[in-house]
């Protein structure tokens, strides 16, 4: 009996120490490789993609934008001006709605006059805000009047919403002695401490790290103020933009 038990134990030991078959080795290598790939993807996702999921592929596929489905366009109203989802209704009163409409219309008219003035040689430089009026007025309306604004070139509607005088827009673009900056800036480089609008700079994206620094100062002061920064696709390609994003993060 004891000899039979010893034989069974010995047989089990031999099986446990036996050299793995090629198939078993391949399975272990495959499992190890998969684990390493998953670890690499996890580290890459955490470091560069904000924990979004990533995957490897062995198929080189060129995405045809004409065949790929486009990103959906967000909207609140339909073509008839009706709110599609009642939860997204801002519930403006008539006074707010009329003010917003008037400011957008006024900005469009001013753009046409000053653009024509530039083409006629009356002023040296001008940049229009065509098509962006609602983004100015909508974002400005959501802010408090003492929140700080860093603009680029096409955020005139924000100043207009805050009550920047129409005459001052003219004085600034014509660079006369009545301009707040005494004609020392290029046209459309507005600024007003009274309206908490930092004077615009010509170089792209310089306002971005400045905006983040100001916001951090407000955070430390715990004064409840907000900083908003406007920039375009050209500014987003500059090094200052990435410095600002990292600083903000």
Automatic annotation (TrEMBL):
Q: Name one Pfam family in it.
A: E1_dh
Q: Which GO terms describe its biological process?
A: branched-chain amino acid catabolic process
Question: What SUPFAM superfamilies has UniProt attached to this entry?
Answer: Thiamin diphosphate-binding fold (THDP-binding)
Please provide the record's keywords in A-Z order.
Oxidoreductase, Thiamine pyrophosphate, Transit peptide
Q: Which InterPro entries would you find in this protein's record?
A: Alpha-ketoacid_DH_E1_comp, DH_E1, THDP-binding
Q: What is its EC number?
A: 1.2.4.4
Q: What does it catalyze? A: N(6)-[(R)-lipoyl]-L-lysyl-[protein] + 3-methyl-2-oxobutanoate + H(+) = N(6)-[(R)-S(8)-2-methylpropanoyldihydrolipoyl]-L-lysyl-[protein] + CO2
Q: Which cofactor does it need?
A: thiamine diphosphate
Q: Does the keyword Repeat apply?
A: no
Q: Which GO terms describe its molecular function?
A: branched-chain 2-oxo acid dehydrogenase activity
Record-linked Gene3D superfamilies: 3.40.50.970
List, for all copies, the residue spans of the domain called Dehydrogenase E1 component: 101-249
Coiled coil, from the record? none
| Similarity comment: family membership | Belongs to the BCKDHA family.
**Functional summary from the UniProt entry:** The branched-chain alpha-keto dehydrogenase complex catalyzes the overall conversion of alpha-keto acids to acyl-CoA and CO(2). It contains multiple copies of three enzymatic components: branched-chain alpha-keto acid decarboxylase (E1), lipoamide acyltransferase (E2) and lipoamide dehydrogenase (E3).
Report what the protein is called: 2-oxoisovalerate dehydrogenase subunit alpha
């Amino acid at each position: 009996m004891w000899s039979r038990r010893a034989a069974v134990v010995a047989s089990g030991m031999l099986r446990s120490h036996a050299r793995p078959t090629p198939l078993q080795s391949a399975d272990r290598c495959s499992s190890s490789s998969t684990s390493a790939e998953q670890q690499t993807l996890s580290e890459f996702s955490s470091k560069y993609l904000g924990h979004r999921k990533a995957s490897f592929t062995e198929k080189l596929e060129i995405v045809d934008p004409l065949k790929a489905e486009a990103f959906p366009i967000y909207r609140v109203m339909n073509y008839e001006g009706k709110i599609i989802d009642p939860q997204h209704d801002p519930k403006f009163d008539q006074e707010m709605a009329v003010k917003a409409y008037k400011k957008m219309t006024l900005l469009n008219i001013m753009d046409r006059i000053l653009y024509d003035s530039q083409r006629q040689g009356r002023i040296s430089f001008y940049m229009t805000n065509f098509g962006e009026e609602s983004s100015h007025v909508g974002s400005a309306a959501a802010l408090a009047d003492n929140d700080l604004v860093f603009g680029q070139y096409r955020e005139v509607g924000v100043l207009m919403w805050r009550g920047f005088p129409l005459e001052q827009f003219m004085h600034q673009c014509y660079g006369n002695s009545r301009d707040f900056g005494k004609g020392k800036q290029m046209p459309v480089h507005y600024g007003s401490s009274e309206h908490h609008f930092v004077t615009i700079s010509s170089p792209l994206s310089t306002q971005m790290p400045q905006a983040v620094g100001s916001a951090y100062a407000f955070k430390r002061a715990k004064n409840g103020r907000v900083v908003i920064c406007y920039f375009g696709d050209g500014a987003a390609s500059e090094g200052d933009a990435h410095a600002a994003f990292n600083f903000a993060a």
